[in-house]
């Protein structure tokens, strides 16, 4: 996606991080790319200005960059994971924030990534924050991440289907998820027949 001139250097930094991540993990960067595509569509539908779309896109492209610190055998483990393994998986958000916070972005990219598993009602992780503490871009990323994750094939399971994914975000709308963002997501998925690309 073309970015505005002031953000070109930051997009190049993001591209370098993605290239590094692809050396060890063939799945996660593809998931991030598709989540970014859906997030941008939602952001445009909501009327975000171009500069904020750039930031949303970049944040979505690296929202799981912290998984580079998680053992690949855990990321691709078939079947159920233990509570201890889930605890390890959850650390990817903090790792991602720490990686991105080392770069002097002139916008809240690291914060958006830090919040992508937080929920409006405060039931998410890693900080359990909610409400107005969550940037709109993070709320968009959370919804796009859920839809892409459920509707795409994962290393450890087949797609659950788009209908199931959309039902899930509707179920959580107004409690965990921003209802305005959920409505926008439903609109763009249906209007554009958006589906994740199967690798």
UniProtKB/TrEMBL annotation:
Q: Which Gene3D superfamilies match?
A: Hypothetical protein af1432 (1.10.3210.10)
Task: Please indicate which superkingdom the organism of origin belongs to.
Answer: Bacteria
Domain called HD-GYP: residue spans: 6-199
Q: Which SMART domains match?
A: HDc
A Gene Ontology molecular function term for this protein is:
phosphoric diester hydrolase activity
- SUPFAM superfamilies, alphabetized: HD-domain/PDEase-like (SSF109604)
Return the protein name. Transcriptional regulator
The organism's lineage?
Bacteria, Pseudomonadati, Pseudomonadota, Betaproteobacteria, Burkholderiales
């Amino acid at each position: 996606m073309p970015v505005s001139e002031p953000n070109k250097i930051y997009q190049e930094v993001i591209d370098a991080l993605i290239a590094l991540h692809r050396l060890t993990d063939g799945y996660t960067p593809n998931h991030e790319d598709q989540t970014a595509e859906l997030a941008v569509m939602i952001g445009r539908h909501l009327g975000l200005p171009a500069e904020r779309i750039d930031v949303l896109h970049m944040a979505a492209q690296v929202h799981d960059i912290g998984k580079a610190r998680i053992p690949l055998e855990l990321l691709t483990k078939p079947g159920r994971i233990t509570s201890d393994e889930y605890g390890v998986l959850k650390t990817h958000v903090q790792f991602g924030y720490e990686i991105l916070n080392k770069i002097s972005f002139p916008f809240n990219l690291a914060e958006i990534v830090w919040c992508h598993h937080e929920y409006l009602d405060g039931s998410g992780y890693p900080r359990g924050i909610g409400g107005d503490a969550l940037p709109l871009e993070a709320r968009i990323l959370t919804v796009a991440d859920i839809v892409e994750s459920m509707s795409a094939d994962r290393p450890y399971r087949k797609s659950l289907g788009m209908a199931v994914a959309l039902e899930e975000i509707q179920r959580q709308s107004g409690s965990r998820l921003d209802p305005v963002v959920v409505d926008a997501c439903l609109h763009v998925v249906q209007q554009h027949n958006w589906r994740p690309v199967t690798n």
